[in-house]
Amino acid sequence: MKPHLEDHLRHLPHDELPAYVYDLSGLRRHAQAIRDALPERVELFYAAKANPDPRLLEVLRDVVDGFEVASGGELRHTREVLPGARLAFGGPGKAAAELAQALEPGVERLHVESEHELRMLCALAAGRSVEVLLRVNLPIGLGDVPLAMGGRPSPFGIDPTCLDACLRLLAAHPGIQLRGVHAHLASGLDATEQLRVIEHLLTWAAQWARARGIPLDEVNVGGGMGVDYADPHRLFDWRAFGTGLLRILDDHPGLTVRIEPGRSVSAYCGWYVTQVLDVKHSQGEAFAVLAGGTHHLRTPAAKNHDQPFEILATDVWPWAWERPAVAGEPVTLVGQLCTPKDVLARRAPVGRLRAGDRVAFAMAGAYAWNISHHDFLMHPAPGFHYLDAASPDSARTACETLQPAVSPQPSRGGSVVQHGG
Ligand SMILES: *Cc1c(COP(=O)(O)O)cnc(C)c1O
């Protein structure tokens, strides 16, 4: 962890733990590196569902080309936070009211998920126009992919056998303009696998459009760029991905290709920091019970992995008796919930971990707070803190109190720290 970040996590007031800390300057640098690795012709949209925190969205606005929203709620939120941003509206199961929202000005692309959805859109359009992509579920052999959304029976996207019916509808409704196709087939692929899927998809799309005599302006190839929770330092190879895309694009002159990653953009900027409440042994195994848990950071439960963490040892111990501790043996890190599923990391090797030490969980910037079951057991919500990206070359330090960004619950407060230099 970067020294200024560690310094911040160590000095957070004890009563503000657990807390989320977002390294916004780190986010900006990371997103910029992704943008720089991509060919100019490739548009980078951020999938807001990974983390729609307004401050993250504001940082990303300066770097990405637009945002993918996956519900009427995300559409409203992103529009409010980033008026004028380019928006693509996707997501399965759009209700009529959500389609009506998509017909209001400001949605640049709508990703159509089914023939019925397209029929509703046509019925609701009433003279208004919207530009759409048809989301297809192509039968691509993806192998053993962590989170497959397509290439097999799936509720996402349109089966290729239903596309002609969609084209007939579109021909009868000139206000609904077809710009191309969309496919988000899997999550967790490395650069080589992603490129293989994309090449296949673009070849299919070009042949399909040619055979049907329709223009193909753009293909959105989705997100799903892999991150490695077992090794936070092993990043998706954006350079190899960009180079590979450049080669693939040679075969498709004039085509706009868009990607919409979420996790691989924002996962690394978030930290969930908390404190060890207790350490105990049970039938020969060591457990550390932490303040908070998977109701704040559901990611390890949802993905059934060990969340990577760093220990910030603290010497403060207010009690007269010996600190409960574990040293030189694996320890399972759990939260405060009354369920055996509340596990953040299993049998993790640690040098030493004591009650009162702080633990900072890494890679908590995507699918973390916003996918968690906050209300279970009614513990207080974490504080939210932002190491600010606004002015990298100013020496200003500012603190302000914030409501938690995406929480209906009372906050423990929060802060913005701007790091100069
Ligand atoms: C979730 C999702 C994304 C983002 O996926 P990541 O794995 O976070 O990169 C992009 N497009 C669609 C359609 C999605 O459902």
From TrEMBL:
Pfam families: Orn_Arg_deC_N, Orn_DAP_Arg_deC. Keywords: Pyridoxal phosphate. Residues 20-365 form the Orn/DAP/Arg decarboxylase 2 C-terminal domain. It comes from the Bacteria. Residues 27-267 form the Orn/DAP/Arg decarboxylase 2 N-terminal domain. Signal peptide: none annotated. This is Type III PLP-dependent enzyme. It comes from Streptomyces bugieae.
